[in-house]
Design goal:
There is one protein chain. The chain is mainly alpha-helical. It is built from six helices and two strands. The protein has a domain at 38-134. A two-stranded antiparallel ribbon has the order 1-2. It starts with 7 loop residues before the first helix and ends with a helix.
Length: 151
C-alpha cells in the first residue's frame, strides 16, 4: 500500500526533488460555484456547512467531487451534537439490575466521532491532513492555474 502519491502540482511546486519524470497533472474538478448547503442538511449540519465550505473552497480543498464528503461530515456533526445533548441531559450512565452501565448513546457517540475523524482527514480539516496535502495556512488569493499562467 505505502504512502499516498503526491499530486503532480505539489511536486512541481517543490521543485521535483526526486528528479524523476513527472506524470501529467491529474484533471482538477471545478470548484463548486454554489456552495449553499444541500437541501437534506438541517439544523446544526447547515451551520457546520456554512462555516467550513467557504474556507475549504478558498484553500482549494473543496471541489465538486468533495461535496458529498462534506455533507456527510456535516451530518455527523449534527448527530454528534444531538448525542452530546442527550448525554448532557440524561447523564452517561443508566441503572440496570446489574448496576450502573453506560448509556447506548455513549457507544454511538464514539462511532460518530471516529467516522468524523476519518472524514476530517479526507477533507483536510486537521493540521496533519493539510500538511500532507501541501496546503498553506493562508488561503491563496489566486488559483494555481492563474499563478502558472503569469509565471
Amino acid at each position: 500500500m505505502g504512502r499516498p502519491k503526491k499530486p503532480t502540482r505539489l511536486k512541481v511546486l517543490a521543485g521535483n526533488p526526486g528528479g524523476r519524470p513527472l506524470p501529467p497533472p491529474a484533471p482538477e474538478p471545478l470548484l463548486p460555484g454554489n456552495i449553499e448547503p444541500p437541501a437534506d442538511l438541517t439544523g446544526y449540519g447547515v451551520e457546520v456547512w456554512r462555516n467550513l465550505a467557504p474556507k475549504l473552497r478558498d484553500l482549494g480543498l473543496l471541489t465538486e467531487l468533495d461535496v458529498g464528503l462534506l455533507r456527510d461530515y456535516c451530518r455527523l456533526g449534527a448527530e454528534q451534537r444531538l448525542l452530546e445533548d442527550v448525554l448532557d441531559a440524561e447523564g452517561r450512565t443508566i441503572a440496570s439490575p446489574q448496576g450502573l452501565r453506560a448509556r447506548p448513546e455513549v457507544a454511538i457517540l464514539a462511532q460518530v466521532r471516529a467516522q468524523k475523524l476519518r472524514l476530517s482527514d479526507l477533507l483536510g480539516l486537521s493540521p496533519r491532513a493539510r500538511a500532507s496535502l501541501g496546503v498553506s495556512a493562508k488561503p491563496a488569493k489566486k488559483t494555481f492555474e492563474q499563478w502558472a499562467k503569469k509565471a
